[in-house]
Amino acid sequence: MSSATTDVRVLHAVLGSGPAGTALARELARRGHAVRLVDRTASGAAIDGVERFAADVSTTTGARQAVAGAAVVYHCVNVGYHLQVEVMPRIQAAVLGAVMEAGTRLVVLDTLYPYGETRGAVMTEETPWNATSRKGRMRAELDDRYLAAHRQGRAQVVLGRSADFVGPGVLNSTLGAAVFPGALTGGEVLGLGDLDLPHSYTYIRDVAAGLATLGERPEGDGRVWHLPTARAVSTREVYTMIEKRVGRPLNVVVLEEPRPFGPFDQNFMDEYAEMFYQHTEPQVMDSSAIERSFGLVPNPLADTLDTTLAWFRTWLTHR
């Protein structure tokens, strides 16, 4: 009899290889799962324990190929801001249809957009969905469809919502490539709106840990969870913490209305205008439900900034 053993681990398929999908693939592999990381080209750097797979999940055929054989599918796909309202519903239709056909569980990475303007109220999973923006209404409609599919027994679905990303690999965030490179080099640093308002930022590795846990724990299905997020402080306090770490005052350029800056071009800022309320009222997300239910603890903000600055130092060296 052969001494070879068969890998009987269930497959976890991660759709989308942006910062969240990549961090999630690494986290799932670290937890010992078989992992497939899907994007249109499968051309990224090798990740230990992760199979890269090429498929266009905005198509029925591509979505079916991407989820084939998987026990859990994670939808972390995003598209350019100016394409979201048109393209994200098409991706949902393909992915949701594929997982329903395959009988696969679906974990969806979501945003705070469905809540809309809250006038500073702390956002919990019970906060009403009152979005008035195009992108917020679109996200709310998609989420309604996901949860309806679960209620109707057509799919097993769970949603994990995140605040603005921060951390290694995160470039296109309000706390990303418009902030850390300037902080490290003495260049300009972006500030949006009122810097003295509290604003939640979710560490990208906490996004990954939260989604991986939801993927492992089906008792959480059928609802929205807020992914683990450190206590909100003002953006000004975040910048003060960065100043202490880089040893110089930050050269902050405050935009009181959207206009091009750094990685954010005119096209992006035109689309971001309807979301600018996020910087003119407090944006405070409470993640205590997932912390209590699954024993997750968000990374301390101080540690997040240390890790992120270290990553950007390397990134700047190898650009």
UniProtKB/TrEMBL annotation:
GO molecular function: aldehyde dehydrogenase (NAD+) activity
Lineage, uppermost ranks: Bacteria, Bacillati, Actinomycetota, Actinomycetes, Kitasatosporales
Any GO CC annotation of this UniProt entry: cytoplasm
Sequence ranges assigned to domain NAD-dependent epimerase/dehydratase in this UniProt record: 16-220
Name of this protein: Epimerase
InterPro entries: Epimerase_deHydtase, NAD(P)-bd_dom_sf, NAD(P)-dependent_oxidoreduct
PANTHER family: NAD(P)-BINDING DOMAIN-CONTAINING PROTEIN-RELATED, PROTEIN YEEZ
